[in-house]
Write a structure and sequence with these properties.
The chain has eight helices and nine strands. The protein is of the alpha+beta class. β8 and β9 form a beta hairpin. α2 packs parallel to α8. InterPro entries: DUF3137.
Length: about 325
């Protein structure tokens, strides 16, 4: 039997088994919310009633306790359901795309790797990453993970010290072997007002540039309108960012909702994709058996897998030394 057909049959069978778990979690969640809602209403009724006050408070309290017990039970059932989805379903989806793809949903890009990538100038104070998918597309090894990185600011108010959390990136970081050991570090960031001002200062008043990276001016107007490029090695940056690669990066960026960031460091290319959705999470109140239940997860995996081809990373321009 064709391995794709076998994978599809196994996937449908696994989804059918998991659908019963989903229904149980969904029903428990609805019951818990109903108990808490009715419990609150009954207590309010007891407080406002002079006739049924004791009965209302007693029954309402019992319903509230029952609701919280059901929430605890729901959470336990949901975590088991989520585990089975990520361990059983997503790996089968991966095999329908490429047999080499594997997922470790408890692991992700480490905080040290995130800082090492230099994708962003700020380092996180709070960091979480999961759902690491790794494999090969042709000759090129790659990996990507979901992550949420934040930094903290503190202000003093008349009421005391207040912490504020700001997102550096919520989305996916992809990295792949570039088959070249870079001598320097090249970063490509979205051209917003802050980076545009920084680029102008770096160009007009280089004495105020405290970074070891300097502005790289490139010849592709579309690329220059979307990105600002800095590098510790001007020659290498131009060697990496060929006209063909800049055009492919523009095309890749045009397919994304938010502007991507890149870095070329070590022997890898890192790409950050800001996203406003968590992927690879099982539905609770929607059926797993509808034809489009896995569409978004499958699309994002295919998108990441396709980057190797989009950026032509299997063409060995250089020999790694």
């Amino acid at each position: 039997m064709d391995i794709d057909i076998l994978n599809q049959q196994t996937l449908q069978s696994t989804l059918a088994d998991l659908e019963n778990q989903r229904k149980e979690v969904s029903a428990l969640k609805v019951k818990s919310y109903l108990c808490i809602g009715l419990g609150v209403l009954t207590i309010i009724g007891g407080i406002t009633s002079s006739v049924f006050s004791v009965a209302g408070l007693t029954i309402g309290t019992i319903m509230l306790i029952t609701g919280f017990v059901l929430i605890s039970k729901t959470n336990t059932k949901f975590y088991q359901y989520r585990h089975n989805f990520k361990q059983g379903v997503i790996p089968l989806v991966l095999k329908t795309i490429d047999e080499s793809l594997e997922m470790n949903y408890r692991s992700g890009l480490s905080e040290n790797e995130f800082i090492y990538s230099q994708l962003f100038s700020k380092e996180p104070d709070r960091y979480r990453s999961e759902d690491q998918i790794s494999g090969r597309a042709g000759k090129t090894a790659f990996s990507f993970s979901e992550l949420h990185a934040e930094y903290k600011t503190v202000t003093q108010t008349k009421n005391g010290r207040q912490e504020h959390w700001h997102t550096i990136l919520k989305g996916i970081v992809f990295y792949a072997d570039f088959n070249k050991n870079f001598n320097g570090v090249t970063v490509v960031r979205p051209k917003d007002m802050g980076t545009a001002l920084g680029a102008w200062i770096s160009k007009a008043m280089p004495i105020f540039n405290s970074s070891d990276k300097t502005l790289v001016q490139l010849e592709n107007p579309e690329f220059e309108s979307e990105f600002v490029t800095y590098s510790t090695d001007q020659v290498e940056a131009r060697y990496i960012l060929t006209p063909a690669l800049m055009q492919r990066l523009c095309e890749l960026n045009n397919r994304c909702s938010y502007t991507i960031s890149l870095s070329f460091i070590g022997s890898c290319v890192f790409i950050a994709f800001p996203l406003n959705k968590d992927y690879f999470e099982p539905p609770v109140h929607k059926s797993l058996l509808t034809s489009n239940s896995l569409n978004e997860d499958t699309e994002v995996i295919r998108f990441m897998y396709g980057i190797i081809k989009d950026l032509d990373l299997n063409t060995r321009i250089w020999t790694k030394r």
